[in-house]
Amino acid sequence: MGKLVTTTATIPLLFQSKLLCFSLSYLFISLIFTLFTTLNSTTKCQFQFHSTLFDYPQSYNPHKHPIPTLHSSCNSLVFFSDYGVVLSEIQRLVGDDSLWDLNSLKYEQGNGNGDSFGRNYSTRKRLSYFDYGDGGSEIPCGFFKEFPISDYDRMTMEKCYGVVVVSAIFGDHDKIRHPKGLGHKTLDNVCFYMFVDEVTLEQLRYHNILSNKTKDNRVGAWRIVKVSSEELYENPAMNGIVPKYLIHRLFPNSKYSIWVDAKMQLVADPLILLHSLLIVKGADMAISKHPLYVHTMEEVIATARWKKWWDVDSLRIQIETYCENGLRPWSPKKHPYPSDVPDSAIILRKHGVASNLFSCLLFNELEAFNPRDQLPFAYVRDLMKPKIKLNMFDVEVFEHVASEYRHNIKHEGSVKTQPTRTKRASPDLLANGSSCTKCDSYLAEMWGEPQD
Prior knowledge:
Shape: globular
Number of helices: 16
Number of strands: 12
Strand content: 5-15%
Oligomer: single chain
Structural class: alpha/beta
Low-confidence stretches: 37-48, 411-415, 428-435
Largest sheet: 8 strands, mixed
Helix content: 25-40%
Order of helices and strands: HHEHEHEHEHEEHHEEHEHHEHHEHEHH
Strand order of the largest sheet: 5-6-4-3-7-10-9-11
């Protein structure tokens, strides 16, 4: 009689490990979730990037790579909100007229016959405008003769009611660079304007980037506006100061603005930058700290040492004027301002009383002395009333939201921005005929020396 043999189903060794089973289940679920997310994002994703809107002709773009940055990583964290959330909030803010009083500042009006676009007042007269008080007085703010652009361009600029990004190239000093990382709705909500003079425009046409066939000249995102620089200043750098600091006057209906030096290329969406660096911070203006300097005097010395401005005597007069009228070196007492020296290549503004007043007062100082806008920055900021709410973010952030390129190489016969030789300080000015200067107290405080 044969034996009765019973068999039992055995679990394969592959599935006997609980850990292995859990891992396989987790992998299977993850794959399903990834597939779902991918399929869902193709139809509902709110943040898509524009493809490149402008390709440089090979002859136009000798500088293909940006200048290396000082920081390879960013320890100064700035949190960017979701693009859809940012877009909705900024649309709500610019659409609510009750939040804005764009006519709150009153400006002195020119008669159109002045010999300067601005007006060079005495130091005492300029200081008299620093305290705006109850807003009853008129302040000088450029435009003492008409800004030399076409009526067509002026009308289109007045139709920019929300956010404007502005840059300028005078003297063919830089290349036009298209901003990167633009969200798919950004061009519908942001105006991009590039101001150029005749010399720059000639080069754009020479490289077949622009033609004479249309008034509405565009290069990628930028709308190109011709400025007759012969009716402004001899120095192209000073001509660039007009759109940089009078942006609220050129675009009287805009609510927010971003100035971008032509040597810079934005690599982050301007709406996201405005939201994270300005709106969330509740600031009137956002600007980067200088990577090296904290005190205004340091920037003055560097300006003379590296020949950023040719007239050393005028630099001396300028800084002594500021020392005499209340400029102090930076110290913790100046908090919440973390520095006296900015990197002003990118400036974000909320157009209101404080930021507009600051821009007007700073422009007046630049018109009186020279276009080096870092020199009067702390002087105006510290003495003006009402105080400006300023977000001076770290240079690490600056380097990660924009790329910097070198200026155009100037050849013989190109436009000169200043004399080739530096004018040294005269001996009698070094000490004003005595053993001290008007900045001795400033220097002693900056160096931590005891004062008499």
